């Protein structure tokens, strides 16, 4: 039987929950008023937006992703999120990011949402990009520069 918090959000035992030390990179993220739902916490769909933002923010700031003119773009083919505890506006968050697997044309990113400074994740999941040629929409081998940019996240 799983534990529940006071908000009935399922949670893993602390030893199975993602810890801040499991991640290589962090992106600060402020929750927004519009992120909250009628129940007074961040709606589940927003977590996927946070994941997407963290991955693409990293790739842009690492100098690899050109969202307007880059030849190769990542298409999301799979996402998953497990919720442990609620977050709500005006919480300040940090999104932890690491790379779990680099394939021929795909990357599996592991992500977790932490309240600022907290050691255990409020939510965690993964995000898989298949990288395709923008013009043909066909997958191809990951560019060497992308592999180089992802190496510190492994």
Features:
single chain; 154 residues; alpha+beta; Thiol Ester Dehydrase, Chain A; five-stranded antiparallel β-sheet; two-stranded antiparallel ribbon; 7 strands; 16% helix; globular; disordered N terminus
Shape: globular
Number of domains: 1
CATH topology: Thiol Ester Dehydrase, Chain A
- How much is the average pLDDT? 92
* Oligomer category: single chain
Helix and strand sequence: EEEHEEEEH
Taking the alpha carbons of the first and last residues, their distance comes to 33 Å
Task: Explain this structure.
With 154 residues, the protein is of the alpha+beta class. Helices cover 16% and strands 35% of the residues. β6 and β7 form a beta hairpin. Mean pLDDT is 92; it is low at 1-11.
Write the layout of secondary structure elements.
Elements: E1 3-4, E2 10-11, E3 25-30, H1 44-61, E4 72-83, E5 92-102, E6 106-115, E7 123-133, H2 144-150
Antiparallel strand pairs: 1-2, 3-5, 4-7, 5-6, 6-7
Describe this structure in a few short sentences.
The chain has 2 helices and 7 strands, in the order E-E-E-H-E-E-E-E-H. The protein is α+β, with helices and mostly antiparallel strands and 154 residues long.
